[in-house]
Design a protein that fits this description.
heterodimer; A: 489 residues; alpha+beta; eight-stranded antiparallel sheet; 11 helices; B: 495 residues; six-stranded antiparallel β-barrel; 9 helices
C-alpha cells in the first residue's frame, strides 16, 4: 500500500487530450462535449465538523444515452453545486450527480432543465482501442475558455492505480497526448465513438496521459442499471507468479505447461477462503488463460489477471480453472466489492466523529493521515501506518474494524491537565476495547464510574477524566468551539 | 540593585571555578593537561549490511585521558569493530599501538593499555576526577589540534539524564554550551586541573559529556572486578500531572509519584512492577509528579538516575508503590542492558554481519544495524513491517527474527529475484528465529523440497527450493558473486 501511495503521490488528477479536427466524426461530436463547473467543500479530517473554503473547479463531460452526462467522479466530488454548459453556449444549467463510482472515477449527471439536451446527440461507447492507433480528445482544459482538441496514439494498455480511490487498480489506457489540467471527464474518440474518458496524468513524465477505457465505462453503466452503484468486484486473493521450476514441480505442474498458471499466494476474502486454497494454481479466469507471471492476454494486451475478475458484477461468479494437488478442477468463484479497505483509500463521505469533554474521536483513515501534511506517510509514524495498512494482514486476530484516533483535545479546564493532546490511537475506554466509533460512544455514555479511563497504544499509557466534570463541561465546550453536533455517524 | 546581585552572582561563580581549579592558573592548567590528554586513532571495519560479505575499513581520531595504572580511558564510540588502535601523546610524534583492556558499549566507556614502555616514559600524568562536578559555570574543552593542546571555553548548562550514545538506556549527562565545532570525540571537559567529563556528542551549540563521577565509579568497579554491567529500569512511566489520574487510582494525600504505564519485557527478568502502579519511592528517594527525585549532590534529577546511582545490573533497588488501594514495598532487581535481549538488537558490535546464503537466497538476522542501511531516516525509509518489528517484545518462543534480505539471481532461484526484506516464519515446518536454526532446518527437506514460509502479511507467503540441487547452486552463487563463505554467525574470521 505504501508502495502504491508513493506512485499515487506522483500522479495527479486532471487532463486531457488533443485531437485533430480533421479526423473528427462528421456529426461534430464536440457539440456533445460539456463543460462542467463544480463548487465544492472538503471536510477537515482533523476537526471533522469543519469544512474547507468553497472551491471552484472545471472539468469536462459528454452526453450519453438517456439525457445524461458522463464525467469523472473526481470532477464532481464533494460538490455543493454543479453547473454545466453546452458547446458555445454561455448559459449555465444546474446538474446533479445521479451515480458516482469513486473506484472507477466515473460519474453520471442529470440536468434539471430537460431542454438542456435538445439537439445534442449522445456519443456512442466504442470498444477498447488498439495499441498504436490514433485517438482524439475533446474537452475544456485550463489555459483558455474555448473547447480544445488534441490527439495522440495509444501507447499501452494495462492495470494502473486509480488516483481517485487511491487503493484500486483497474484497466487504463496510456496515450502520448499532451496533458492539460481541467479536461478530466472529457471523451476520447476514435471513429466517432467514445473509446475512453480522460482522467489522470503523471507529472514528471512527458507525453503520458491516461484514459478510462470502454470495458470500465460499460461495466459502470451496467452496474447502475438497477439504480444502485455497487462497484468493481475483486476475487479476494493475492496472485503470485509461478515461474520457479522447483515450485512448479512441488505443485506437480508438468513440464509441458511451463508458462501457464499463477499461484494463489494468499486468500483475503471470505468467499475466496470458501472456494480456493493457498497454492491452488489459477489456469484460467473467465476463459482467459493465466500465464506464469499472473497475466492474461486481454484484447491483445498482456495485463494482470485481476482484469478478468473485474469484468463481472458484484455478487456474480466467475468461472475459473485451477490446478489443485495434481488435478485440474473447474469452479465458479463468487466475486464481491471489497468494503473492508474503505479507510485505506480516499473517502467521499464526511468523516465520522464523536466529541466528548473536548476529546475528538474520529476513525484512522488515509484521509485522516493526510492531515499530517504532504509528506504524511513519512511523518505519521510507523505505528499508525502499520495499524491502518498492514495489521489486518499481519495480525488479523488483533486488527480493528475501524481504528479510532483521539485526533485532538479541545482545551478546557476539564481536560487541561491531560498530557496527551491528540493524534494518538485509542486502545480501550473504561476497559472496553475500541473497535469502532460506536464502541467509543458506548464505552463513554454507558459508564457510571467516577472516572473515565482512556487507554492508548504505542507505549503512551492512559489518561483519566472526572466523569461528572466531563459530563457537565460538554455543552460549554461544544459552544466554545462552535460544534453543532457532538457526533456524525 | 538587580545589576549588583547579578555581578555578585558572577563573582560567586568565578570563585567556585577557582576553587575547583585549586588555584591553578589557566596557562598552568593547560600545560598540565598536555601530559594527560591522549590522541587515539581507531581503525575499524565498516560493514555493508545489504552485502554482508563486503567490508571496508575506516579510521577516526578521538581522544582519551590517562588514568592510574598506565591506562587510558575514553568513550567506547568508534572503538567497535576495530582492527587496530594507536595512541599518540603530546599531540605529535610517534604512534603507539594500544589494546582494549575493557569496553562497555552501554556505559560508552573503554579502557586502553599500551604495552610499549616508551609511551609512558615522559611523565604522563593520570587525571584527577572532580566529584562532585559543577553543574553551572565555565569549563574548558581540551584536545589536541595540529600538535598543540587546544583549550576552548564551554558553559556548563546542567546535569540531566539522557540516552546513552550507543545504548537504549538513560545515563547522567553533562549538558554544555559551546561554539566549538566538531565536538563529541571524547574530548576532556575540565575545570582547573580536574576532569569533569568526556564528550559524547554535539547538536548545534549543545554538547553532551559523560560526567566524571560516573567514569570514576565504573572505573573503580572495573578495577575491583565487580563491574556487572549497567542496569536499567525496564518500564515506561507517565507524569502524574493530571489529578484525575491519581484520583482514579485512589492515591490518598498529596499528589506525588509517577504512574507506570508499560513494562518492557526482558528475557529472564521478572519485574515486580505492574502497569498503573504509582511509583512513590525509589531507593529511599521520594518521586515527584514529574518523575524527579532530590539528589543530595545535584538537586532534581530524573528517577532513571537511581538505576546507576551506586547500583549495577542485578542489584536490588527498593521501591514503594501504590497499587490497587494499598502501599506496597517492593524489591526491583535491575536487568542488565544487553542488546541480545531485544527482539531487534540495537547493535551488533565486534561481529561481522551474520548471514546465511542458500541457493542465492540471502538470510540475515533482523538487527538495527541492518535497518540503518536505509540511511539516516531509516525509521521512515525501511519497510514498515520490518521497522514495526523493532517494537516487538521478545518471548522465549520468539526471541528474534530472520529476514530474507536479498536474492542473488541464479537459474536455481528463477522467479524469486525480486523477493527481499521478508521476515521469515518457518522453514520445512520448523519455526526459525536465528541463523543456526535456519541452517538446521535446511537439513530436513520435505520430500525433496525446502519449504520457506514468511510471516503473515508479507508480500509473498512462501518459496519452494529444490533440496537436492541446493548445495551445487549455493556453490555456484558463491563463485559468481565472490562470497567468501555461505554462512557467517558470531565472531568469525572470514577466509
Amino acid at each position: 500500500m505504501v508502495a502504491c501511495s508513493s506512485i499515487l503521490k506522483r500522479i495527479f488528477l486532471h487532463l486531457l487530450f488533443v485531437t485533430l479536427f480533421s479526423v473528427l466524426h462528421a456529426d461534430d461530436p464536440e457539440k456533445s462535449v460539456i463543460q462542467i463547473m463544480t463548487f465544492s467543500q472538503q471536510p477537515d479530517w482533523d476537526e471533522p465538523w469543519n469544512d474547507s473554503r468553497v472551491r471552484g473547479s472545471t472539468g469536462s463531460g459528454f452526453v450519453i444515452e438517456g439525457n445524461r452526462i458522463m464525467t469523472n467522479a473526481h470532477v464532481v466530488s464533494w460538490a455543493k453545486q454543479i453547473q454545466v454548459r453546452r458547446f458555445q453556449d454561455s448559459r449555465p444549467h444546474l446538474a446533479e450527480v445521479a451515480y458516482i463510482g469513486h473506484d472507477c472515477d466515473l460519474a453520471v449527471l442529470t440536468v434539471e432543465d430537460p431542454s438542456f439536451f435538445e439537439g445534442l446527440d449522445p456519443l456512442p461507447i466504442g470498444v477498447l482501442p488498439k495499441v498504436r492507433s490514433v485517438v482524439n480528445t475533446i474537452g475544456y482544459p485550463a489555459g483558455g475558455e474555448q473547447i480544445s482538441f488534441t490527439s495522440g496514439v495509444v501507447s499501452r494498455i494495462e492495470l494502473i492505480n486509480y488516483v481517485q480511490p487511491g487503493n484500486r487498480s483497474l484497466l487504463a489506457v496510456q496515450t502520448d497526448a499532451a496533458i492539460n489540467p481541467g479536461n478530466s471527464g472529457g471523451p476520447v474518440l476514435q471513429d466517432g465513438q467514445v473509446v475512453g474518458v480522460a482522467f489522470q496524468g503523471t507529472p514528471g513524465l512527458e507525453n503520458t496521459g491516461f484514459f478510462i477505457p470502454p470495458p470500465i465505462v460499460q461495466h459502470f453503466l451496467k452496474d447502475i442499471e438497477d439504480g444502485v452503484y455497487d462497484g468493481f468486484p475483486q476475487a479476494g486473493i493475492r496472485l503470485s507468479p509461478l515461474i520457479n521450476p522447483a515450485y512448479r514441480k512441488y505443485l506437480k505442474m508438468g513440464d509441458d505447461s511451463a508458462s501457464t498458471g499463477a499461484r494463489v499466494d494468499t486468500l483475503v476474502s471470505d468467499s475466496a477462503k470458501e472456494f480456493l486454497r493457498e497454492d491452488d494454481v489459477l489456469l484460467e479466469i473467465n476463459g482467459y488463460a493465466v500465464a506464469a507471471d499472473a497475466t492474461i492476454l486481454y484484447e491483445g494486451n498482456q495485463v494482470h489477471g485481476a482484469i478478468a475478475f473485474s469484468q463481472a458484477q458484484h455478487g456474480q461468479s466467475v468461472p475459473v480453472k485451477i490446478w489443485r494437488q495434481g488435478q485440474a478442477m473447474e469452479l465458479a468463484l463468487p466475486v464481491h466489492v471489497n468494503q473492508k479497505d474503505r479507510l485505506e483509500g480516499n473517502q467521499y463521505e464526511p468523516p465520522r466523529y464523536f466529541v466528548y469533554a473536548g476529546l475528538v474521536f474520529t476513525p484512522l483513515s488515509r484521509d485522516y493521515l493526510t492531515t499530517f501534511g504532504q509528506n504524511w506517510s513519512a511523518v505519521a509514524g510507523i505505528g499508525l501506518l502499520y495499524e491502518l495498512f498492514y495489521k489486518k494482514n499481519a495480525e488479523p486476530e488483533k486488527a480493528r474494524n475501524e481504528p479510532i484516533m483521539l485526533s485532538t483535545v479541545l482545551s478546557h479546564s476539564v481536560n487541561a491537565n491531560m498530557e496527551i493532546r491528540g493524534r494518538v490511537l485509542v486502545d480501550a475506554i473504561n476497559g472496553h476495547r475500541i473497535d469502532s466509533l460506536e464502541d467509543v460512544i458506548q464505552a463513554l455514555e454507558e459508564h457510571d464510574g467516577s472516572h473515565h479511563l482512556i487507554e492508548f497504544g504505542e507505549r503512551l499509557g492512559f489518561e483519566c477524566l472526572d466523569r461528572q466534570d466531563a459530563d457537565s463541561a460538554n455543552a460549554a465546550i461544544m459552544e466554545t468551539y462552535g460544534i453543532q453536533k457532538d457526533r456524525w455517524l | 540593585m538587580k545589576a549588583f546581585v547579578r555581578h555578585a552572582l558572577w563573582f560567586a561563580l568565578a570563585a567556585l571555578v577557582m576553587d575547583l581549579g585549586d588555584g591553578v592558573s589557566a596557562q598552568e592548567s593547560t600545560q598540565s593537561w598536555s601530559s594527560s590528554v591522549i590522541k587515539i586513532e581507531s581503525t575499524r571495519h565498516q560493514y555493508e549490511y545489504f552485502q554482508p560479505w563486503s567490508r571496508r575499513t575506516a579510521s577516526n581520531n578521538k581522544f582519551g585521558v590517562v588514568v592510574h595504572d598506565q591506562r587510558i580511558i575514553t568513550t567506547a564510540d568508534y572503538l567497535f569493530d576495530q582492527t587496530i588502535i594507536r595512541v599518540q601523546k603530546g599531540g605529535r610524534g610517534s604512534w603507539y599501538e594500544a589494546k582494549l583492556q575493557w569496553i562497555d558499549y552501554h556505559a560508552n566507556l573503554a579502557l586502553l593499555e599500551v604495552e610499549d614502555a616508551g609511551f609512558w616514559d615522559d611523565g604522563l600524568q593520570p587525571v584527577r576526577f572532580a566529584d562532585p562536578i559543577p553543574t553551572t559555570g565555565e569549563a574548558r574543552l581540551m584536545r589536541w589540534n595540529d600538535g598543540r593542546l587546544e583549550s576552548r571555553r564551554l558553559e556548563i548548562n546542567r546535569l540531566r539524564l539522557g540516552r546513552s550514545a550507543l545504548s537504549y538506556i538513560d545515563l547522567p549527562q553533562l549538558e554544555l554550551d559551546s561554539e566549538v565545532e566538531g565536538v563529541g570525540w571524547s574530548e576532556a571537559v575540565v575545570v582547573g586541573n580536574q576532569l569533569i567529563g568526556l564528550t559524547t556528542s554535539q547538536s548545534r551549540s549543545k554538547c553532551s559529556a559523560i560526567p566524571s563521577f560516573l567514569v570514576q565509579q565504573i572505573l573503580k568497579e572495573v578495577d575491583q572486578g565487580t563491574f556487572r554491567g549497567v542496569g536499567f529500569f525496564n518500564f515506561y512511566w507517565k507524569k502524574a500531572e493530571n489529578p484525575a489520574a491519581l484520583d482514579y487510582l485512589e492515591l490518598p494525600g498529596q499528589k506525588r509519584g509517577v504512574i507506570v504505564t508499560e513494562i518492557i519485557e526482558v528475557p529472564g527478568h521478572e519485574t515486580v512492577l505492574r502497569p498503573k502502579d504509582i511509583l512513590l519511592m525509589v531507593d529511599g528517594f521520594e518521586i515527584d509528579i514529574v518523575g524527579d527525585y532530590e539528589d543530595p549532590s545535584y538537586g532534581k534529577l530524573m528517577l532513571e538516575r537511581l538505576a546507576t546511582r551506586g547500583h549495577w545490573a542485578g542489584d536490588p533497588v527498593p521501591m514503594t508503590v501504590w497499587r490497587e488501594g494499598a502501599m506496597i514495598d517492593l524489591m526491583f532487581h535491575l536487568p542488565k542492558a544487553d542488546y541480545r535481549s531485544e527482539y531487534v538488537p540495537s547493535a551488533n558490535y565486534d561481529m561481522p554481519p551474520e548471514y546465511l546464503m542458500a541457493g542465492g537466497l540471502v538470510f540475515q538476522p533482523l538487527t538495527e544495524p541492518y535497518l540503518r542501511s536505509w540511511g539516516g531516516e531509516w525509521q521512515r525509509r525501511a519497510p514498515v513491517r520490518l521497522v514495526r518489528l523493532k517494537s516487538q517484545a521478545p518471548t522465549e518462543e520468539d526471541p528474534s527474527c530472520v529476514v530474507l534480505s536479498a536474492v542473488l539471481p541464479d537459474p536455481y532461484n528463477l522467479g524469486y529475484q525480486d523477493y527481499r526484506y521478508l521476515a521469515l516464519d518457518k522453514v520445512n515446518g520448523y519455526k526459525v528465529v536465528d541463523l543456526p536454526e535456519l541452517k538446521e532446518a535446511l537439513e530436513s527437506p520435505q520430500e525433496g523440497y525446502h519449504v520457506v514460509e514468511f510471516l503473515p502479511g508479507e508480500a509473498v507467503s512462501k518459496v519452494i527450493l529444490d533440496a537436492p540441487l541446493l548445495k551445487d547452486a549455493t556453490q555456484r552463487v558463491m563463485f559468481n558473486y565472490r562470497l567468501p563463505t555461505d554462512y557467517v554467525v558470531g565472531e568469525v574470521d572470514l577466509p
